[in-house]
Specification:
homodimer, 153 residues, mainly alpha, Multidrug-efflux Transporter Regulator, Chain: A, Domain 2, three-stranded antiparallel β-sheet, elongated, DNA-binding
Chain lengths: 153, 153
DNA sequence: CCTTGACTTAAAGTTAACTTTAATAATTAC
DNA sequence: GTAATTATTAAAGTTAACTTTAAGTCAAGG
């Protein structure tokens, strides 16, 4: 029983519509806009109106987040696209290529950690000098997304 | 040129010593104590004194963190140990067994994500209906440690 | 016309895991 | 004996990624 046809421009979406179709809250969309990840046009009365392409852009943001890319980097990446254009297939390929590398590193770090953990089964390990878990050679962090209070050590 | 031998009890460590040997800040140790992850004895003037075993306990906390276990869960796990005892080899085995499972899940989630990403190279994907990246079957999150503001969707 | 419901903004709150600050006390070094 | 470290506490600040709240505007239905 939905009817919202008094919209002048039928190809635009309201913030509520984008939120529902993209699967996130309207507050998140406003937040992304404040961080420069997305943009919006306004109708006469100041309400946001989005083109269909925004759904793809938001989808890309969500995938990048699942990969573990912080919003700031996602914003940087998206800002390399020609002025606000909807990402094309080759845009997406370029972005995902870059992100795949980081993802592989994360997987590698976690896998190494698991292997070290496996190597420690019942060894009564965690010795000060010899335990690889306690003396990680890879200082590079396995940290996922989220707050790390500036020092990911 | 270090000399600190006026300590009555030579087998205890000050908070500064634990911090240095464990590789974290004194503020972090106090914070862990406030969260119930570690305990301390106090000397006559109220300064913290730790037994050697604390180093192993802190090492376990650090490994668990690398695995991606939030401090709250680490605290729960450690609290299953008999009253404040230094974790033994079998304690460690039990704890790491539980944590390994979560670690493997995380690795699995990220690996699946990477494979989906690989399957999308140049496909111009992210289609509303058919893209597995856009419609992840596994609602379970790939989220690492860190703030997720209560809704890990 | 009036009531919902969706929209607007700025500002403050949330969570995790700490750090920083401030003001003071105890130790250690010389 | 005094200066420099190191310690103590409580409270506030930090970062990320949002959400919630407050106070009000706009749109659609009856």
């Amino acid at each position: 029983m939905k009817m919202r046809r008094s919209n002048t421009d039928h190809v635009t979406l309201t913030i509520g519509e984008v939120a529902e179709r993209a699967g996130l809250a309207t507050s998140a969309l406003r937040f992304y806009e404040s961080r420069g990840l997305i943009r919006s046009n306004r109708n006469a009365s100041g309400h946001r109106r989005y083109a269909r392409g925004m759904l793809r852009r938001v989808a890309i943001i969500k995938v990048a987040q699942r990969i573990g890319i912080p919003l700031g980097e996602i914003a940087d990446a998206l800002s390399t696209l020609p002025e606000g254009r909807t990402p094309t297939a080759s845009d997406w390929q370029r972005l995902s290529d870059a992100w795949r590398t980081g993802l592989n590193e994360r997987i590698g770090t976690l896998t190494k950690l698991r292997d070290q953990l496996d190597g420690c089964i019942g060894c009564g390990c965690l010795s000060l000098e010899s335990c690889p878990l306690r003396n990680p050679a890879d200082v590079a962090a396995a940290a996922g997304p989220g707050a790390r209070a500036f020092d990911p050590n």
